[in-house]
Amino acid sequence: MLITVTRSGGFTGVDKVRKIDTSARRDAAEWEGLARRVLPSVADGFQYRITVDDQVLDLAESGLTGDQRDLIRAVLGEEA
């Protein structure tokens, strides 16, 4: 399993990207279990990307706030 985490923003605006390849690790089961637990549990749920000017937000349907849901519905032209 290849796990990648990207951190962006902050004061300096420097992205930090780290990758962990679990295939040759003794603790692979722990890494893979942790990675699976953080993924959305709704396999057939929608994923959204909201872009406002140069800011991008990737979201799973299961974690939307009320305002995010309202914006998505308004932009997509769907009933509330």
Q: How would you write the strand order of the largest sheet?
A: 1-2
Discrete helix count:
2
Give the number of domains: 2
What is the helix content?
25-40%
Distance between the termini: 39 Å
Describe this structure in words.
The chain is of the alpha+beta class. It has two domains: 39 residues, no CATH class; 39 residues, no CATH class. It has two helices and four strands. Strands 1-2 form a two-stranded antiparallel ribbon. Strands 3-4 form a two-stranded antiparallel sheet. The longest helix has 11 residues. It is flat, with a radius of gyration of 17 Å. The protein starts with a strand and ends with a helix. The model has no long low-confidence stretch (mean pLDDT 86).
List the helices and strands and how they pair.
Blueprint: E1 2-7, E2 16-21, H1 28-38, E3 47-52, E4 55-60, H2 66-76
In short:
It is built from two helices and four strands. It has 80 residues and is of the alpha+beta class. The mean pLDDT is 86.
Describe this protein with a few key phrases:
single chain; alpha+beta; 2 helices; two-stranded antiparallel sheet; 2 domains; two-stranded antiparallel ribbon; 80 residues; 4 strands
